[in-house]
Specification:
2 domains, 540 residues, Growth Hormone, Chain: A, Glutaredoxin, 4 strands, mainly alpha, four-stranded mixed beta sheet
Length: 540
């Protein structure tokens, strides 16, 4: 009899373990595919700027491409409200089943969309609409997946289990970069013409797999228990954001962890790629390869820090990550510049470029409608330097003073393209990074360091967010601050930082944006964030 009891008990434990693994795999795999869809645009921003924003100058086109990328992030909080409300009223399972279908179909449609040359202004408009649909879907996805997994997880393993959800964003990025790299190899020189469409079209296969997997899932036990007891919220949005005790927690969650976490994540995996390709002029294929290697090394730490948070607490790990980001971003990116393009780094130190001009003659070169003319000597000088990815500093001169450019000891008065090109070439500034001189191991080391900072802030986040809010409004309450943080603070990082670099000529000036955000989050976390790891989800 005792043997039967032991065997039966072992069978139940084994069955429970299998169910836990199924829930983690099903939720995580679907989220990987959804992040893959979302990140494709970021990985292909440079190509998309040529395909859909060809009616404006090159610098404006790239900023527009980044703005279209950001559009998907901007609408994510609205998706959090729509799908969060549905998730708290009808269930977690069906809501995040719907989100992946919307995401996959929107991405597939981008692969079929004609470019600016074919349908004119309609092309970028439709592209932005599709990006917004992606953002709405992703706004409902994360909260559903994180809540679903956390509500199934044993209390002592909540951080570990949700850590797998946290890793899905990076794995989605990895998958998107790998597919883009494969498409480049397949299409060759035709990649910018039609090869870029391959990764978008592939999403229809991934969404089919994800939908099939998620159809087999059951509703979470916490939601089922609450539903059976008749305790569902009839107005999750009102209960989440119009009741001060809960709104206070929402605000703390936004400013203490989500804003800072978001910029660490996007700095490590998006801005670093823009920095390498657009500013340091590293070959895109090489930059993608180095980022893929770095992501493979860094991704397991999302799960590791989730696991560690089950033992020492969520707050300690997140606060440490925010502190490291605030202190180390400038030195890490300067080290990245040294490793990725040593020629431009050496030339910048030995022969700095300085533009001295009357400020009234210099314009912030962002042309929303493609009609502005940047034809002053100062504008022409800065345009030339920006297009070549050459770092410079600006100094003010007295009114009426002609623009003067110093390249080391060489002085050039007025706009003289031939003389300026000759001076920067003589000073050792390269037209692009020499792949043979890129210190690949050094670049990977720096990106992995950035990844580790991101994993510290992001790994424990899902468990913490789930634990902050009561079951009846958890999906809605946690989704909004998460997506405002990631959609607005994080999603705008590439756009804002790149625009700051263009405006100042200082290739590191854009880092002030993430550094200031992480500093604010660090202070708010220390003052207001509570530890949550021992919270009982059914009692909060």
């Amino acid at each position: 009899m005792s043997d039967y009891v032991q065997q039966n008990g072992a069978t139940q434990v084994s069955s429970a373990a299998r169910e836990e693994r199924k829930i983690i795999v099903a939720s995580s795999l679907g989220t990987v595919f959804e992040w893959y869809d979302f990140f494709l645009y970021g990985a292909l921003a440079a190509v998309i700027s040529k395909q859909f924003f060809a009616g404006v100058n090159e610098t404006t086109a790239f900023i527009f491409a980044l703005l279209a990328f950001a559009a998907g992030f901007i609408v994510r909080p609205f998706g959090a409200l729509v799908f969060g409300r549905l998730g708290d009223m009808i269930g977690r399972k069906y809501t995040f089943l719907a989100t992946i279908i919307i995401m996959g179909l929107s991405t597939f449609a981008v692969g079929l969309l004609p470019g600016y040359a074919s349908i004119g202004i309609a092309a970028p408009i439709i592209l932005v609409v599709l990006r917004m649909l992606q953002g709405l879907a992703l706004g409902g996805e994360y909260g559903g997946a994180a809540t679903y997994v956390a509500e199934h997880a044993p209390k002592a393993k909540r951080g570990f289990h949700t850590g797998w959800i946290q890793s899905t964003a990076t794995l989605g990025l990895l998958l998107s970069l790998a597919v883009v790299l494969a498409a480049r190899l397949i299409a060759g020189d035709a990649f910018d013409t039609w090869g870029w469409r391959i990764p978008f079209l592939l999403s229809i296969v991934l969404v089919g797999i994800s939908t099939w997997i998620r159809m087999s899932l059951h509703e979470s036990p916490s939601f089922t228990k609450m539903k059976n007891e008749g305790k569902l919220s009839t107005s999750p949005i009102r209960d989440s954001f119009l009741v001060w005790p809960n709104l206070k927690v929402v605000l703390i969650a936004l400013f203490s962890v989500n804003a800072g976490q978001a910029v660490t994540f996007y700095a490590a995996q998006f801005y670093v790629l823009f920095f390498l390709t657009q500013i340091l002029k590293v070959d895109p294929s090489l930059a993608n390869t180095l980022l893929i290697v770095s992501v493979i090394i860094g991704a397991p730490f999302f799960v590791f820090f989730g696991w560690l948070s089950d033992r020492i607490g969520r707050k300690k790990i997140i606060v440490t990550g925010l502190l490291l980001a605030t202190v180390l971003y400038f030195p890490l990116f300067k080290l990245l510049g040294h490793y990725a393009n040593p020629q431009i780094d050496a030339a910048r130190q030995q022969s700095p470029i300085v533009v001295v001009a009357d400020p009234a003659t210099c314009t912030f070169q962002f042309d929303p409608v493609g009609k502005a003319k940047f034809d002053s000597p100062c504008d022409k000088v800065k345009t030339l330097l920006i297009k070549q990815g050459l770092p410079y500093t600006s100094q003010s001169a007295a009114a009426g003073t002609p623009v003067q450019v110093s390249v080391g000891s060489t002085q050039i008065t007025g706009y003289d393209e031939a003389a300026l090109n000759g001076a920067v070439k003589a000073a050792g500034y390269p037209a692009k990074a020499d792949s043979a001189l890129v210190n690949a191991s050094g670049v990977v080391l720096v990106i992995v360091a950035l990844m580790l900072i991101a994993t510290m802030t992001y790994g424990p986040l899902a468990a913490l967010m789930v634990e902050l809010f009561p079951t009846r409004i958890r999906y809605t309450s946690m989704s909004l601050p998460y997506h405002i943080g990631n959609g607005w603070f994080g999603g705008l990082l590439p756009t804002v930082s790149f625009a700051l670099v263009v405006y100042t000529g200082d290739i590191f000036y854009g880092l002030w944006y993430p550094v200031l955000v992480t500093a604010v989050s660090l202070v708010c976390s220390l003052l207001f964030l509570k530890e949550t790891k021992n919270v009982d989800l059914d009692k909060v």
